[in-house]
Amino acid sequence: MKRRRGDLSVRGVEKRGSDTPNRKRLTVAIAATVLLVSRLDRDAGTPRLRGAERVIRALRSHVKPPENTVNGTDASAASNERLQIVEMMRHAWNNYKLYAWGKNELKPISKRAHLSSVFGAGDLGATIVDGLDTLYLMGLMDEFREGRDWVAEHLHFRDIDSDLSVFETTIRFVGGLLSCYALTGDTVFRDKAAEVADALLPAFDTPTGLPFSLINPSTKASRQYHWAGPNSILSEIGTLHLEFTYLSDVTGKDVYKKKVDRIREVLNTIEKPGDLYPNFINPRTGQWGQRHMSLGALGDSFYEYLLKAWLVSGKGDAQAREMFDAAMHAALDKMLRVSPNGLTYLAELKYGRILDDKMDHLSCFAGGMFALASTTLDNAVSERYMDVARRLTNTCHESYVRSETKLGPEAFKFSGAVEARAQKSNEKVYLLRPETFESYFIMWRLTKEQKYRDWGWEAVQALEKHCRVQGGYTGLVNVYHKKPQGDDVQQSFFLAETLKYLYLLFSDDSLLPLDEWVFNTEAHPFPVKGKNPLYRAAEKPAETKENRV
């Protein structure tokens, strides 16, 4: 997750031609069979996962192996790694269920609910909604069904009397619910996604159409973060497009898409200093705030969504790709730096000058982003994008291996003798973040270089050694301590993103192939329009009062 943070033709991999319809049917068959087999195995008293995985392997044996495999091997060689990660998911989920069910997040050391999360003390079940599609992909169907039933019976947003982040609610709740709808076709998920989005709509009632950051669904009052003054945040207003556009397509209600199209229009037409987008913008005036620019916190996922809006539209949203390439040309020219020892990183700018020679962990998604940009459009910058992808992913890996725990800090500096290490105490934390593993996964899929799986497995072992406790998984206060103290928070995105990307890193390419699925910034997979039969677009526009112009 990045916070305050169509046909994807991969060069070097031949298209499968007549094999594509069979692969599409297989995608649907796998999903249905996992559910069926898990039920049969449960009734027979045999391990659920083992049965589901057995049938998945049998089905996948009919798929033509990827043509860019290494020495003729594929993900079947990584079954032990996958099973280990599935066990980690069950440990995280079962302890959440035991100690914090229905609450937003778990305190795994204290073994109670975490009441000061980004969603507060309410019973919104953030961990449930965020983790559901991961459970489904791993074949943990009993857990998936209990989560689905909680959503159907207990998830209600209209009467919530507290301030919620429009951005966080969109990427975790709307995104997670839409992903489950795509995977299953269960309309409970689609309808709940619409209910959540409807609760957010009053935040968009501004002179420019740019939303405020926070909304109280009960009072419909909106406001900004106190620390941001009158401004909204670029990475927040710019990271709603995938969810709201897809929600319009599956409900037939264009009200959601109109909201994000208006945001796009404002950001496309506004004057951009040096072709870059500052991180703060006033939704009342449409003017930039302070000229701070970053591909890390406050800016990151806006750029990610320009690329992914183009991808998920089946490459129909040409404007998004044009905006992405223009912004990346400026970013690589002004932000990309190389340390004295050859590590590549993305610095932050203020008023066009380097503000700080540091890189956020949040920026570590960028390796995967540049790799996707490189392999999905063959143009003059494709080779440079892939070179940058490799170098940034390597730098993020270095931030991990240079710590005692082999887990990466929240931010790391490049100054003097210090490279890829945190200096401030608040930057030495590890919050169970996924961004580095996201890049490992995408780089593995697109290059098949074994080092990315090796690095991912090193991370799994580090998570087990330092973050696993009896009550779940905890973040760390200082990654440079041999025996680090836990922060006592099991983030919902640990289930949604961290474990999902690690699982996919060791899975076959036919599980969520990158030419048919695009991940939102919370790792919830969305089907590619016009390419993936699970897109499930509504047959006709909905006839509702809100949908009339």
Automatic annotation (TrEMBL):
Cofactors that this protein relies on:
Ca(2+)
- Top-rank taxon of the source lineage equals Eukaryota
The pathway it acts in is:
Protein modification; protein glycosylation
Q: What is its EC number?
A: 3.2.1.-
**Record keywords:** Disulfide bond, Glycosidase, Hydrolase
Per its UniProt entry, what is the enzyme's top EC class, as one word?
hydrolase
- Which residues does the annotated region (Disordered) include? 1-21
One Pfam annotation, family name? Answer: Glyco_hydro_47
Q: Which family does it belong to?
A: Belongs to the glycosyl hydrolase 47 family.
Q: What is this protein called?
A: alpha-1,2-Mannosidase
List the source organism.
Iphiclides podalirius
